[in-house]
Amino acid sequence: MIRDKDSFDPFLDSLRAFVRERLVPNEERVARENAVPDELVAEMAAQHMFGYSIPEAYGGLGLTMEELALAAIELSQCSVAFRARVGTNTGIGSEGLVADGTAQQKQRYLPDLAAGRKTASFALTEPEAGSDATALKTSARRDGDDFVLNGTKCFITNAPIADLYTVMARSDPDKPGAGGISAFLVERGTPGLSVGKPYDKMGQAGSPVSEVHFDNCRVPAANLVGGLEGHGFKTAMKVLNKQRIHLAALCIGPAIRMLNDAMAFVAGRRQFGQALMNFQLVQAMIADCQTEIQAAQALVLQTARQRDAGEDVTMNASICKYFSSEMCGRVADRCVQMLGGYGYIADYGMERFYRDIRLFRLYEGTSQIHQLTIARHSLKQAGHPVGR
Ligand SMILES: Cc1cc2nc3c(=O)[nH]c(=O)nc-3n(C[C@H](O)[C@H](O)[C@H](O)COP(=O)(O)OP(=O)(O)OC[C@H]3O[C@@H](n4cnc5c(N)ncnc54)[C@H](O)[C@@H]3O)c2cc1C
């Protein structure tokens, strides 16, 4: 749902201009320095990027799902590191609070997150609980007015720079699976919380990811999300269901960018006495990229509108995430191919996108996990429910 087209269109135009004029020219610098420079973070904050999905009452823009998807498609037409920098505030790091936080918790944290003064992160995954997140072992033992957390989280985006961690931990050791899990808001500087060294990754230089360790980390019971024990996995799933549509939109921007760059290249480079773009096998690659990008965009925007209308989009969110992330991988592969040897050379930029976007098929549910979700829902709808 677009609430007011007259104000939303200029917002998208100005975002598009900011991406082209400020972010794209700084892509190589971010990759080289392995960080988004502070001055650009400040500019992104001034553009309200940290608060896209946070309600207006807390200083955010309160974008609807359709508006957020359209903004994500624009914002992601540059190096993935930029949107990863804001992405935990506009997404997984704030969404648990927005969905299930108490009024007090929202008031305490959301204004700083929306303004980009503080950075959020979402800590669900553990070394032995990846795709099966319900197997998580980080414990949260009640002790008076506190919970005491012990355990390790891995692969946490923005953990090295985060001020606030939404942590899923098992508060009821007697309840295996989802039921015994609660969500906690843990502030940087809390004794017993430490973060690991940022991983050396395949791509997304400038987006720091690390482990988070809890060693008798004492968290006030007031920081239990929503004040509800045993509700943490539901909160996490609410976050991820929305985020899957958001991430699907974030897969479309890089695909558009890669195709545009590849088309500029094949229009300029000549072989056999003519521009590469004249060869029909090259045109076939362009057509396949364009077709899949448009299909993903239609799917994501339709699902976003359905979510805005209050429909249950659990299966469709998985379809969006699965199709868009796989689509982006296929587009990246074709675009490297169109550039020939230059597609493999760092100076031409395509190889960076190729590496950066590989993550899309792995996090927030691997493609295989989404295939399972889609199949289970389809079978259930057809009257053939399957067990776990
Ligand atoms: C850079 C990066 C950033 C991340 N950011 C975050 C973050 O901010 N917060 C967070 O909580 N997590 C984060 N993650 C974790 C991410 O969500 C997990 O890596 C992902 O869920 C997969 O878990 P795993 O790596 O343990 O793989 P595994 O679960 O071990 O899976 C390995 C392979 O087995 C397949 N597989 C597993 N189970 C099944 C099954 N039942 N059927 C068929 N195939 C199956 C998978 O599809 C995959 O191909 C991040 C990961 C990375 C790499």
> Structural class given helices, strands, pairing?
alpha+beta
CATH superfamily of the largest domain: Butyryl-CoA Dehydrogenase, subunit A, domain 3
Radius of gyration from the alpha-carbon trace, in angstroms: 21 Å
Q: Number of helical segments?
A: 12
CATH topology of the largest domain: Butyryl-CoA Dehydrogenase, subunit A, domain 3
Low-confidence stretches: none
* Number of beta strands: 9
What is the CATH architecture annotation of the largest domain?
Answer: Up-down Bundle
Cofactors and ligands = flavin-adenine dinucleotide
Helical content band: 40-55%
- CATH level 1 name of the largest domain: Mainly Alpha
Q: Could you spell the SSE succession in H and E letters?
A: HHHHHHHEEEEEEEHEEHHHH
Distance N to C terminus: 34 Å
Taken together, the total number of domains comes to 3
Shape: globular
Tell me the major beta sheet. 4 strands, antiparallel
Overall average residue pLDDT: 97
Strand content: 5-15%
Outline:
Helix content is 49%, strand content 14%. With 388 residues, the protein is of the alpha+beta class. The strands form three sheets. A four-stranded antiparallel beta sheet has the order 2-3-7-6, with no helix packed on it. It has a three-stranded mixed beta sheet with strand order 1-4-5. A two-stranded antiparallel sheet has the order 8-9.
Descriptive overview:
By secondary structure, this protein is of the alpha+beta class. It has three domains: 5-115, Butyryl-Coa Dehydrogenase, subunit A, domain 1, CATH 1.10.540.10; 120-228, Butyryl-CoA Dehydrogenase, subunit A, domain 2 (Beta Barrel), CATH 2.40.110.10; 234-381, Butyryl-CoA Dehydrogenase, subunit A, domain 3. Helices cover 49% and strands 14% of the residues. The chain has helices at 5-23, 27-33, 38-46, 65-75, 80-87, 92-100, 103-115, 232-268, 280-308, 314-339, 350-356, 367-381; strands spanning 120-123, 139-143, 146-157, 164-170, 181-187, 193-195, 209-220, 270-271, 274-275. The strands form three sheets. The chain has a four-stranded antiparallel beta sheet with strand order 2-3-7-6, with no helix packed on it. A three-stranded mixed beta sheet has the order 1-4-5. Strands 8-9 form a two-stranded antiparallel ribbon. Strand 8 (270-271) and strand 9 form a beta hairpin. Helix 8 runs antiparallel to helix 9 (280-308). The protein is globular, with a radius of gyration of 21 Å. The two termini are 34 Å apart. Bound molecules: flavin-adenine dinucleotide.
